[in-house]
Prior knowledge:
CATH class of the largest domain: Mainly Alpha
Number of strands: 2
CATH topology of the largest domain: Four Helix Bundle (Hemerythrin (Met), subunit A)
Number of domains: 2
Strand content: under 5%
Amino acid sequence: MGKWRLAATKTVDKNEKMYTKLYRKNWDSPFRYLREKMSSTISARIFKEMESAILSGGLKPRERLIEMDLIGKFGASRTVIREALKRLEAKGLVRTVPYRGAVVADLSGQEVEEIYFVRVAIEKIAARLVVKYITPEEIESLKALLKEVEGHLRRKTDQMIEKDAEFHRTIYQTCRNQHLCEIIDYLKTKSYMVGYNAWSMPQRIEQSIQEHREIVKAIANKDASRLEKMIVRHLTVSRNSYLDQLKGNERWALKPKEKEVG
């Protein structure tokens, strides 16, 4: 009888421990999920804010990205900032330089030539597909967006670069090829500083507005050849502007050496 009671007691204790452990696990699960969800949301938000700061010129090419400064600027923990920097580096927007740490990426002349060679080729392909597949309703929406973009460009608002990007992204989305759109978006993001630099050119805003109008007109007229030419022109202006600036910087950088030699 005593042995039976002892065995029964052990069984109860074992079951009690099992249920207690199960209870605690289930009780903690919702909170763990919420913590992970909140952490993921914060990380995504900080990443987008830092990406936007780079693409809009708030953080300039070659600018050092010091962790403590970023923590203060974006109000995030060191872990979140480091995670965002890794994701930005994977997108080609940040580079790690020996003895300097993380910096906002810039591009050499060779890199610009290579990227724009590919951009011209694939955006011409996308242009033909846009003309083939875009609907009358999408053309009307594009015309409305064109007016909105012009307003931002003329007023030089903080959103003008973002709206310009939205305009081009909207055009290519009508090509009905998601993989092509992703490649275009990746290369455009990687070479963002080329387009950003072009906005500093005198009369570039008015010139860009006219090019946008010609692009929409070619789409509305289903003129693939004209659309290809306008897209190439639009890309070429930005590329040449950046390359000219690089050459100017190289000439400027050589002057002190020439003095030393002399």
